[in-house]
Amino acid sequence: MGYAIVQVLNALSFSALLLLTALGLSVVLSLMNFINLAHGSFYLLGSYIAVFWFASGAPWWLAFPVAFLATALAGALLERFPFRGFYARTHLMQVLLTYGLSVVFADLMRWGFGAQILSPELPEPLQGVVFLLDMPFPVYRLFLIGVGFFLAGILWVLLDRTLWGAVVRASVADRGMVETLGIDTRRVLSAVLVLSAGLGGVSGALGAGMLAAYPGLDEEVLILALVTVVVGGLGTFRGTVLSALVVGFALTFSKVWFPEFANVVAFSAMAVLLLLRPAGLVAPRLRQV
Amino acid sequence: MRDDAQPRLAATRRRLLVGAGVSTLLPLARPVLSQGARPLRIGMVTSLSGPFTALGESMRAGMQLLLSQSGNSMAGRSVEFLVEDDAARPEDGVRKARKLIGQDRVDVICGVISSGVALALRDVVTEAKVPTFLLGSANDLARKAASPYIVRPTKTNWMLGHTAARWAYDKVSKARVLTVGSDYAAGREYVGDFVQTFQQLGGRLGRQLWTPLGSADFGPLLTTIASERPDMVFGFFAGSDAVRFLRQWKEYRLAGRIPLVGPGAFFDQEDVLPAVGDAALGAVNAFNQSPTAPASANFNRAYMAAGKPLPGEFSTNGYVCGQTIKAVLERVEGDLSDWEKARAALFAEPVDTAFGRIPFDPRNGQAILDIHVNEVRRSADGKMINTVVHTYESVRDPGPDA
Amino acid sequence: MSAVLEVSGVSKRFGAFRALTDVTFDVREGETLGLIGPNGAGKTTLFNIITGFLRPDAGGLHYGGEAIDHLSPERRVSRGMVRTFQKSMVFPELTVRENIAMAARQRAGVGLRWGGAQRRLGAAEARVHQLIGDSGLRRSGGERMSDLSYGEQRIVDLLISLALEPRLLLLDEPTAGLAQEEAERLLQIVRHHDARTSVVLIAHDIDIVFGACDRIAVLNLGQVLCCGTPEVVRADASVRAAYLGALADS
Amino acid sequence: MVAVAGLSAAALLAGEFHLRFLAEILIIGTAVMSLDLLVGFGGLVSLGHAALFGAAAYAAAVAAQHLGGNLLFILGTGIAMGAAVAALMGAVIVRTSSLFLLILTLLLGQIVWEIVFHWRDVTGGADGLRGLPPLSFGPWVLSSARPLFLLAGLLALAALWLAHSFVDAPLGRALIGSREQPIRMSALGYSIPRIRFLTMLVAGAIAGAAGALYPFVNLYIGPQSVHWTLSATMIIMLVIGGVGSLWGAFLGSAVYLAIQTYISAYTDRWQLFVGLIFVLTVLLLPNGLAGGLRRLASRMRRRRAQQA
């Protein structure tokens, strides 16, 4: 019983991690229809920041806002050039540009932070463990679950339930209309991209305790995030949350039941899912003609 | 075999690409001098991108340290050192080796981390008859893939798996031993060799778990291990997998409750231990390398003086590889033209290295090594250190007999 | 005169929105049927259902006396049911000739060939030449589509459909955005094409519809208000109230 | 003509290492060119192309181990395997597009990789297969660099010709149509799944032919040749060379492999070079080097015409 509960919690904590990595990607995709494959780089940058911040002795919880601000700044610079010119381009061109940038950033980060695996010393309050019916479960993972779904909740309120969110969505749907209201849509789009980059950084800071930080992690995280967003159905926030749970449980329980073939089983499950629902779990209704 | 019709085409392209500054490396740019005065060209193939980047950088640093200590000369010949990146991809590694042989005309090839690259190189260097000091650790390199042109100044996976089983059976647990391994060639060999020896000694095993290479989350696996309540766990992971496994091993409070044993690469001093805090404290590993082994002391000092951390396996490997090359050259007075003779000279007498005094097995060119049992202990200044608690002397791979 | 297409009791909802409710009418052989109605009346949805791009929630379609509800869009095309779209849907990167040939080859049954069938391919090419020549376009056919004016693009768009030699041609606002003269030329091409082809024409321009159509169906809020000759429709009080009146007022 | 002249000049002048390197460029280039059919003409960005290439390579290597290296037999095996995997992948992906297609091909390709990686008895697992018998054609053994290079050259020329004929044929035109206006294509009665499926088969067969020769350049095949990272590398090569030009694929693979082979000896930062060149290509040369060269050529022609 304790075993089953902890395995479910394991799945939930991994889902939370997936959700964290996917949120930023999902936000730009759903609101701006922009694919940012450099998202993994934001994540990894956030992880490195957390590693050094935790080691510095400054108040540990500040690591998260710092990671957010630093990557948001990087996002703001990239937004000016070259992202801005690619919002209206095809998905293919966006994929190529941002993937190319991620290759550049990967090597720059390796240059700056070295090739060694770095892993943060977790702050004291997160090092604990709880025993559920005699089975151990780390406090840090409970923290991840909490923060992951909390952040998703905040974003949902911010983007779906506030005027600001309505403006963002309207800016994408009908740019001209919003501009006649005296709103600078370019700044709205910049703000979304900066938010997304910051989310990437803060999720990197949060996830560093689980995934560590090393060259190549950016790509691994990107793939996980991309699979999550796509399985969820492009451009829906609800879909991303649902999909993080589905993918997280699929990956975790394939490890529980078929550890040796975990990847094959999980990949096949996701492929079948995409076959059955070719537009993802939650497909936005689009008029074709 | 070496093609003497060196292409002009390529030489100009290279010049275009890299400018005149490196033209000293151009093979045609220098007149052919007498054998003794011609510089010795050593080409290293190692991973400077891809998953083994950190290890490759360490290996290169180890070799460079030896070269600078020797004043960039061996047995009176000056040495030119060329490094090529294999990105841990065999196809790339082979191409780079062919470049070193065909274009740069190296006298010696060394290096390699990935077993796949090492095995792929085997036929290339054998066909080209280039003396090669190969550092991958797949068992086959000392067995089916052994070659008269290959010398192996490092361990095979069997040497560690086998020794770990002897120690585990004698000192840790004779039954209810669970194994967990990264599901790729090295993991299969380490765990397989451990299981074989352990069962031959009469030990009884519990579950055997495998997990895909590159796992982000070991939570499900660790929960399974916790529910199995084994008396001991033998495991192998490398690089980022090792770091994550060990950290999560501690987070799930298995550290200190279940003895953990593995081959040394799982607890590498340079690559893994600095990244896991005290998560590996008390874990035991069988390893040909240990910073506390007496033979390694001089190397440790010199390596750290160069601003590096306490050395791990691959920096030591790079250094030992250089020591071996140097020993061969000194025994034949710098003349490698007769490799048969040089090889016989190497096998005739052990070589003193940072791994200790190593004799080479004439059947396969494989080093016969002392294998240490290291326990991860806390040093006076709080660092985690692989500390020798026992040494199995002269462990010899079964080689072609296996 | 027998019916080519019978639409009986077709309904379609999108969530809470009733796009079509119990729509019934027919299209007769050789006639031109106008389909008018205000924005959002369901005209394009109806086209999508007829051509198989959407499935109706209720009701059915008969084409040439045969139920076709189970047929994919491609199968319906192969039986001579051809449509155009509200916006111009040409292949901008290809030449005019290649645009039309895409349809002509499909009509000749060689759309997916790779090698062989030279004779049929040649016939398709000839057909393309003929269509371009008959259209009155002053173009050789070698120009890239994206270099053409909008009016010319719409004409090529129509020629693509005609190259399929349709039995039933569904035109979704083919004249929208065209100058009077261009619109008339386009309709002329349709009329001169083949007397046996039935045409369903959606258009906003009432003059065009009343001038060009044998019969007219009026759609409002997803329902057919009235269907008959231009005179009958003009006289219908409900149409006047719902549609014509509104237009006249504005 | 230029291509044939270049190939024969290289065959006469270059040395052992360079010939083998050129053979590798031509083989990888052929695989990248087959990807161009999907990406450049069909708008189908696949991250699973290495699975077609690599599965064919393994099939050829295993066949050679057991039945010898007869060239035609090996080529046939590779083509059949490439087409078979492409058929499986094609059947799955025909109804998806854009990012869904990207992820689905990634997942399917990685499933192939997992099979290769785990089926140790046949594939050698992570270590790959080594010590393959060399290719043979009648009495000739094709193990040294020059015949391998000529073989790769012939393969590349044949594949290029085949791809051109495909693109010019009605099927290729329909593929372009399905990229430009998929909805209109259905309205013209074309079955887009069928177009995509047939294209996958063709691309798979060409990639399979390239894959069949690949293990024999080094008499080795490893699981990296199936991994998605090779697919991503192929896309980088394609973009640098020029999407939609077919011959640009060879240019792209040459540039990429040359950087990787030559720059990496002097700096650890070669990936930075690749990344920057890639980004600059996307920003400045949307049609890649092939498009850039073509533009340059036409400008020079115009200038010459003005002078004359």
Automatic annotation (TrEMBL), chain A:
Pfam families found in the cross-reference section: BPD_transp_2 (PF02653)
InterPro entries on file: ABC_transp_permease, BCAA_transport_permease
Keywords associated with the record: Amino-acid transport, Cell membrane, Membrane, Transmembrane, Transmembrane helix, Transport
Residue ranges crossing the lipid bilayer per the database entry: 6-27, 34-54, 60-78, 99-119, 139-159, 191-215, 221-249, 261-283
Main location per the UniProt record: membrane
Single Gene Ontology BP annotation: amino acid transport
Transport is among the record's keywords: yes
Protein name in UniProt: Branched-chain amino acid transport system permease protein
Protein's organism: Muricoccus roseus
TrEMBL record, chain B:
Domain Leucine-binding protein per the UniProt entry, residue ranges: 39-377
Membrane-crossing residue ranges in chain numbering: none
Keywords for the protein's UniProt record, in alphabetical order: Amino-acid transport, Signal, Transport
Domain of life: Bacteria
Annotated InterPro entries: BCAA_transport (IPR051010), Leu-bd (IPR028081), Peripla_BP_I (IPR028082)
A Pfam entry, by short name: Peripla_BP_6
BP GO terms, sorted: amino acid transport
Family listed: Belongs to the leucine-binding protein family.
Protein name in the entry: Branched-chain amino acid transport system substrate-binding protein
Source organism (scientific name): Muricoccus roseus
Upper lineage: Bacteria, Pseudomonadati, Pseudomonadota, Alphaproteobacteria, Acetobacterales
TrEMBL record, chain C:
Domain ABC transporter span(s) in chain numbering: 5-246
Keywords: ATP-binding, Nucleotide-binding, Transport
PROSITE patterns: ABC_TRANSPORTER_2 (PS50893)
Single GO MF descriptor: ATP hydrolysis activity
GO CC annotations, alphabetized: plasma membrane
Listed InterPro entries: AAA+_ATPase, ABC_AA/LPS_Transport, ABC_transporter-like_ATP-bd, BCA_ABC_TP_C, P-loop_NTPase
Gene3D superfamilies tied to this protein: P-loop containing nucleotide triphosphate hydrolases
Annotated protein name in UniProt: Branched-chain amino acid transport system ATP-binding protein
Species name: Muricoccus roseus
Biological classification of the source: Bacteria, Pseudomonadati, Pseudomonadota, Alphaproteobacteria, Acetobacterales
TrEMBL record, chain D:
Membrane topology: Multi-pass membrane protein
CDD domains: TM_PBP1_LivM_like (cd06581)
Record key words, sorted: Cell membrane, Membrane, Transmembrane, Transmembrane helix
Entry-linked Pfam families: BPD_transp_2
PANTHER family, alphabetized: ABC TRANSPORTER ATP-BINDING PROTEIN, HIGH-AFFINITY BRANCHED-CHAIN AMINO ACID TRANSPORT SYSTEM PERMEASE
Name of this protein: Branched-chain amino acid transport system permease protein
Biological classification of the source: Bacteria, Pseudomonadati, Pseudomonadota, Alphaproteobacteria, Acetobacterales
Keyword Membrane: yes
GO molecular function, one term: branched-chain amino acid transmembrane transporter activity
UniProt-annotated location(s): Cell membrane
Domain of life of the organism encoding this protein: Bacteria
A GO term from the CC aspect: plasma membrane
Transmembrane segments: 38-59, 71-93, 99-119, 140-163, 195-216, 228-250, 270-293
InterPro entries, alphabetized: ABC_transp_permease, LivM-like
Major localisation: membrane
